[in-house]
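Continuing from the previous page of notes. For each protein in this section, the sequence appears first, followed by its structure tokens. Read the first protein now.
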Amino acid sequence: MVQKRKKPPVTKIDAPVPPKRRGRPRAYQPDVALGKALDLFRKDGFAATSLDDLSAATGMNRPSLYGAFGDKRELYIKSYRRYRDDARAAMANIFRDELPIRQRLGRIYAVALDIYLSGEAGPRGCFTVMTAASEAVADPDIRALVLEGLTEMDKAFAACFRRAREKGELSNSADPAVLAQLASATIHTIAIRARAQTPRAELEAIVNGAIDVMVGA
């Protein structure tokens, strides 16, 4: 009896396997993560904010934090730049629009108070005054950013007072540069008092008194 030969089994050709991706895709939004870091630095400052704190706040582990933002100092500086950009954007139209000087100053300080009194855990004040100024003592890069911010604020206020003088709202003897420094000093004062949880009504009274001094009662 002749035995039939069995046909060899047909082997299936596997589909080509796509190459594995290297590394993990980003599971975070950089802008959101930077905002979380900014909130933490504003609340606790540089020294009191640990990498573990930043990791918990942003939802990113340490390697991811380093990969996205650099070390803690670099993240602090990027947070400070973000704070300044946000504050500048919030006040840009007020400085640019043609308004009576008293109304312009009132609106600038109202926006500043909105910023300084914000915070889920309580008023956070101003990043520049409350934390960056302290770090500026030992860090030349942060010091340069602080001085740049202060100068920018003085120049913006000086331009406001210069326009007001040209329109006859201020006397010809009014010095826009001196008035600008007084206006900036008022910003710093309400920032510190806001962090100390001074009620908004009291801060507004300080602002109104300062405006009376600068432009006349």
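Done with the first. The second protein uses the same format. Note its length before scrolling.
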Amino acid sequence: MTGVARLIRASLCLATGSALLARHLGRCATVWVARGRRHDLTGWKAALGCWLRLAGIALLLYGLWWLVRRAPALMCLLAGIWMTASWRSGRPPAEDVDGADEAAVSEAAPTLDREAVRTLLLTLMGGGSGVHLRTVLAYLQQQPSTAALTAGWKVADLRARLVALKVPVDRGVKVGGVPTWGVRRRDLQAPSPATAQETSPEASTAA
């Protein structure tokens, strides 16, 4: 991989991780505020806890802003913490996808054969329990043999093709502690729908 490609990959990793981190923090804040509602009360009293928690978040943000205004150098520390967290959220799985089998990639994408795609996904998983679709797409778009085919694809495009091949995808696959669209190893190791349909009549006849 060239230096420019590595730089682009790192930039995409930071951008993706930052977006994921922001959404995750937003969801956590939403859930935390919602839990402040009292179900044993009605009217404004029931929602008082939510308002107090919102005020606590606003006060925390104001305090952070005040500290940065007092000590601007603190922004460098905060930016470093955010970038580190973004990198950890947006990077591919711990295993090195650069060392993945390029032959599996070349075979999988152009032919869109289910077994070839399955082999590719397992290769990208390495020793992990799953792989994010954005990781698969980023890898395909970096390979000379599949870059033209997947140019302009979004995660939704890849997901649609996997669904058409009856490859199980799920939006809650966790890799590096971040849940998003991906494929789990245990789902790939299960019998395919086609195989299940073929063996079903035999099983019923035997019964």
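What the second structure shows: The longest helix spans residues 3-34. Residues 94-111, 198-207 have pLDDT under 50 and may be disordered. We return to this in next week's lecture.
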